[in-house]
ABC transporter domain-containing protein
Amino acid sequence: MQYSIRRVHCECMGTGLHIESLRGPHVGPLSFAVARGECIAVMGASGAGKTQLLRLVADLDPGEGRASLDGVPRDAIPAPAWRHKVMFVPAVSGWWAATVAEHFDEAVRDDALSLCTAMRLPAGIMARDLTGLSTGERQRLALVRAIVRKPGVLLLDEPTSGLDAETAEAVEACLGELRASHGVAMVWVTHDASQAARVAGKVYRIIGGALVPA
Ligand SMILES: Nc1ncnc2c1ncn2[C@@H]1O[C@H](COP(=O)(O)OP(=O)(O)OP(=O)(O)O)[C@@H](O)[C@H]1O
């Protein structure tokens, strides 16, 4: 565990993600909640701390504060399991094998293929080498890779920044379906105010390290 989380107070308990007094080197203290099936958008100037916020929530960087998912405190869940349930999808994802298919277990390939189609990825992409893919294709594949692992929360760092408007719309629809059908909660970082208004029930800005309703 990288940040010290004491047992959450009763007001932190409940369905979804609850964050209280989260603090890192450049942000905080921040408190917010995202219900199952809800999306909040986080905007803010470059360098304001949006990525840091997501990484703190995923417990990928050292920080302080309290967190719970569906009423279960962070300190009751082993760190790798927390990061699986509360999954960070970075703006630029890492890849470790030569082909796309090697990044997906056999058991999730069908789900992955359906998602690829929904996100307008080209047919046959599973057989392709990573080196030949565009930035936008990698970005969507990173989302597919995260979704098939069935997280309860997705922490999305500018998930459509490399995409044209039409493809971004397909990704937004796909993620909307995931919220509606599977109750996934999302924290969506974006620089696009129109997108924030489309996808999120609440929009915040990080200003001076604080989370302010936009
Ligand atoms: N590994 C690091 N070491 C030191 N400082 C860092 C590190 N990573 C980020 N920072 C600093 O933390 C602050 C917040 O960075 P962060 O990446 O969270 O910004 P952001 O709001 O996501 O910006 P952008 O919109 O440009 O992606 C910045 O001042 C950045 O320089």
Q: What stands out?
A: Residues 3 and 138 are 31 Å apart (CA to CA). Confidence is low (pLDDT under 50) at residues 1-13. The helical segments are 50-57, 79-85, 109-118, 135-147, 165-182, 193-199. The domain at 3-97+152-208 is CATH 3.40.50.300 (Rossmann fold).
